[in-house]
Amino acid sequence: MKAMILAAGRGERMRPLTDTTPKPLLTVGGKALIVWHIENLARAGFTELVINHAHLGEMIEAALGDGSQFGVRIAYSAEGEALETAGGIAKALPLLGDEPFLVVNGDIHTYYEFGKARDIAATMQADPNFLAYLVLTDNPPHHPNGDFALEDGVCKLEGAHKLTYTGIGIYRPESFAHIVPGSKAALGPLLKQWIGQGRVRGEHHRARWVDVGTPQRLAALDVALTKCSKRVCLRDEA
Questions:
Q1: What is the Cβ-side half-sphere exposure of residue 224, based on CA atoms within 13 angstroms?
Q2: For the packed helices 57-64 and 33-43, what is the interaxial angle rounded to 10 degrees?
Q3: Quick check: is 164 in a domain?
Q4: pLDDT tier at 229 (50, 70, 90 boundaries)?
Q5: In a domain, 236, yes or no
Q6: Domain count, the chain
Q7: What range defines the domain where residue 109 resides?
Q8: Bridge-partner residues for 15, per DSSP?
Q9: pLDDT in tens, 45-79
Q10: Where are the strands (E) in 40-111, listed by range?
């Protein structure tokens, strides 16, 4: 099973930091955001990764190389101009293969157990009606209304208690085959369509998750991770 890390965003809310550094290479706890993902994926047994990039993408390739320093193989999908999430996935399909794949936003920090993705993908393979699996979490202060509800493991557009999409999902490649490679396409409308059809399942991730979308949240995460490096921390503390 392959994993894709989305790293093509411009990071407008992170400016001026992202004027000279691509957002995935911003450092917290002594490591680039994207390196935390790569190491966690490698520990979970993922050896083949796909990373898309646009803004300052050459810096990402220079920093990560072929992935051998992390015990993985990295293939790059260069976009030139960012194609949005679904467009980026569609362009990378030739690198992702014919089986369900894991997608992780490059600008989050989490200790999600990525190893669970294999069993989920196997279930997805056996059920053609099962298009996507979303990891949802409690709504952070900056996104109080959430995105989707979750009822008995099935994602719903509405519900008594909506949760926030973490940026972690598992998808079938054929779900993006209709998108012309190289064209821009957002993921949100597709998710709403699939959820409305009852074809998306998910889970409530209750451990630590941070949307590193602003310099302030980046700084706060850096402080938390640096403190943890000086003592023994539980995974959901950092």
A1: 17
A2: 50
A3: yes
A4: low
A5: no
A6: 1
A7: 3-228
A8: none
A9: 999 999 999 989 999 999 999 999 999 999 999 99
A10: 48-53, 73-78, 101-105, 108-110
Integer CA distances (angstroms), 158 to 139, 151, 163, 234, in order:
15, 10, 10, 34
Residue range 170-196: mean pLDDT, rounded: 96
Asked if pLDDT for residue 121 goes beyond 60, the answer is yes
Separation between Cα atoms, residue 177 and residue 150, nearest integer Å: 27
128 CB-near residues (< 8 Å, 6+ apart): none
Instruction: Read off the CATH number of the domain in which 37 is found.
Output: 3.90.550.10
121 and 20 Cβ atoms separated by less than 8 Å: no
Closest alpha carbon to 105 in 146, 164, 159: 164
* Residue 192 maps to a domain: yes
Q: How many residues does the chain have?
A: 238
In this structure, is residue 234 part of a structural domain? no
DSSP lists the bridge partners of residue 201 as: 133, 154
Tokens 């051998």 locate to 68
